[in-house]
Amino acid sequence: MLQVLKIQEEAGEVAEAVIGALGLNPRKGHSHSWGDVEGEICDVIVTGMVALQRIAPDNPRAVFEQHLADVVARGLDSPPADGR
């Protein structure tokens, strides 16, 4: 499924935008804004949702909602990162 590979491509564009927003590429300097980073993150989310729809066409919403519930449950069972 090539759509899954597209997620990685989009994630690479997020990394490129962060590098550009921080000005870490000596050849390009500050080539991106934080708005660009936000847009690229949205592209990753949309691409992931399209991939999910193609993999679970009968009910991608239910798959996603169940996964979110699992993530929330794991978060509630884990102590905060700062140890509180």
Describe the structure.
The model has no long low-confidence stretch (mean pLDDT 92). The chain is mainly alpha-helical and 84 residues long. Helix content is 73%, strand content 0%.
Q: How does the major sheet shape up?
A: none
Termini gap: 42 Å
Helix and strand content put the structural class at: mainly alpha
Give the overall shape.
Answer: flat
Strand content: under 5%
Radius of gyration: 17 Å
Count of individual beta strands: 0
Low-confidence stretches: none
What are the secondary-structure elements, in order, as H or E? HHH
Tally of individual helices: 3
State the helical fraction.
over 70%
Mean pLDDT: 92
Give me a quick take on this structure.
With 84 residues, the protein is an all-alpha fold.
